Amino acid sequence: MSNEADVALSVRLSKLAADLEPSPSDGESMQSPEAVLRSVAVFGDIARVSTQLQSQAVATAQDSGLSWAKIGKALGISRQAAQQRFDTRRTEAIQATETMRIVGPVSRNEEVEQINAAGRQGWKLIRSLHGEHALELDDES
Question: In this predicted model, what pLDDT tens digit does every residue of 86-106 receive, in sequence order?
Fold first, then answer.
């Protein structure tokens, strides 16, 4: 965003905060500690909702086929940073079942050996995180 756009957004958010904030009671100035704390709370609410909306927009962008590189560029961050921050598949836990298995936590030295050993037993790798790998029983084996 340009500096001009940032200023315009700041003005709009300040107006929104003023609309959301209760008016100071009689005898209370706009700079009283209570009024300032209410402003802090209102801007906290705006930030929380903004973060949720941003996450939804990123998920929609990903679902529509946009790459993490393009999403990262729109956010002014790297592809890797965008994926680490917004990829819900990275945070959704996988539960081990009869056809699903978790290898890890393992060290870097052990992971290839363990994944290869599981592969020889009919398991295929479906997701890798740092030191933890999800495997699924391969029906074709």
Answer: 887 655 566 677 888 887 777
Residue pair 30/24 in contact by the 8 Å Cβ criterion: yes
The Cα 24–Cα 33 span in angstroms is: 11
Question: Residue type for 23, please?
Answer: S
Q: Which two tokens stand for residue 72?
A: 């990262």
Query: Which residues make Cβ contacts (< 8 Å) with residue 127, sequence separation at least 6?
Result: 89, 94, 133, 134
Query: Could you tell me which of 12, 14, 21, 23 has the C-alpha nearest to residue 42?
Result: 21
Listed in sequence order, the DSSP H helices in 65-122 are: 68-75, 79-86, 108-120
d(CA 73, CA 130): 24
Question: Is pLDDT of 140 > 80?
Answer: no
